[in-house]
Amino acid sequence: EIPSLKKAFKKAFNIGTALNTAQIEEKDPAQTAFITHQFNMATPENVMKSAILQPKWGEYNFEIADKLIEYGKKHSMKINGHTLIWHSQLPSFMRNIHSKDSVNTFFTNHIKTVAGRYKGKVFSWDVVNEALNEDGSMRKSVFLTYLGEDFVTEAFRLTQEASPNTELYYNDYNNEQPAKRAGCIALIKKIQNAGVRIDGVGIQGHWHVGKIPLKEIEESILQYADLGLKVMFTELDIEVLPRDFQGADINQRMTNNTALNPYPNGLPENVQQQLADDYEALFKLFLKHKDKITRVTFWGVNDANSWLNNWPVRGRTNYPLLFDRNNQPKPAFYKVIALKK
Ligand code: G3I
């Protein structure tokens, strides 16, 4: 039997995965068995985003999200709701909303309805996702434009009201990098100074092979924990395709929709090894700070499920996770599991 990540790190932190619709619907019992053996928390990869939950103004579709709640109950997995307020994957009707009143109505009703429905059913919410630019300033979005900077604090206040016992997180990528981290810290302090509760910060952790910013990650763990917050790695994966597969001619490739597979014979040995070393270094760091880190979630169960197969272009063959396309452990898995606590 393949060793279990959730068991190996039981004394350190929870181990989560993103789940897609097919996995939530348990189309494949062997896949369910594999998932529940490895992970004790789940984040919906897409099914709790606003476009899916509220396809038409005021009309909600909770079908798959409810199934996820059942899945969590049945398999004793805690659910992290993802995500209430995000500028992306918004309902298409939001493209036609151009007034402060309407944006505010959407914002308020969406949070109240969704957080209210899953009160006591999700363990936590990514209340606000990706509100910052790389330089630490607020990202332009429909929420910033019409509601102003305070929309972030307001989102936390409304979620807390609708679902008082749920942990509330701010989630972003690259927020381990100094400038963005400074912006993130300022945002968190603003929420706290308003007397509104925030329980944790998610560092997504979409990194590149051979380029893991270990120093910045460690500084971030310490600085976020200093604010009294739980620190989580919420969407971990390590991109392995060469830089030029997402470089200069990206626009041309976006329109050509070319299938790209630089490694038709599988991941080369040296890259496989570097991936393993990177995951090992990361988990060593996570374990060093296990008193501050409550969860490490992978963004997908195995390489076949990863969003990185379809970004920045569709149809790539990527290898960013610990398990291959047949759920077989990769060298990276064995390096990580050897660190067992
Ligand atoms: O479901 C439709 C399908 O009906 C349609 O035929 C197909 C063709 O376009 O698209 C399908 O929807 C796609 C969806 O994933 C489900 O596969 C969307 O186009 C695609 O945009 C969407 O991508 C998701 C992406 O967020 C959207 O921004 C990825 O799966 C998901 O992994 C990714 O997750 C985000 C986190 O939420 C936030 N942090 C970054 C992370 C990676 O981008």
Shape: globular
Number of distinct helices: 13
Radius of gyration equals: 20 Å
Which superfamily, in CATH terms, is the homologous superfamily? Glycosidases
Order of helices and strands: HEHHEHHEHEHHEHEEHEHHEH
Short recap of the structure:
It is an enzyme of class 3 (hydrolase). This protein has helices spanning 5-8, 21-24, 29-38, 50-53, 63-74, 100-117, 142-147, 151-162, 178-193, 214-226, 250-256, 269-288, 331-337; strands spanning 14-19, 41-44, 78-86, 124-129, 167-172, 200-203, 206-208, 230-239, 293-298.
Report on this model:
This protein is an alpha/beta fold. It has one domain (5-241, 250-337): Glycosidases (TIM Barrel), CATH 3.20.20.80. It contains 13 helices and 9 strands. The chain has helices spanning 5-8, 21-24, 29-38, 50-53, 63-74, 100-117, 142-147, 151-162, 178-193, 214-226, 250-256, 269-288, 331-337, and strands at residues 14-19, 41-44, 78-86, 124-129, 167-172, 200-203, 206-208, 230-239, 293-298. It has an 8-stranded parallel barrel, surrounded by 5 helices. Helix 6 (100-117) packs parallel to helix 8 and helix 12 (269-288) packs parallel to helix 13 (331-337).
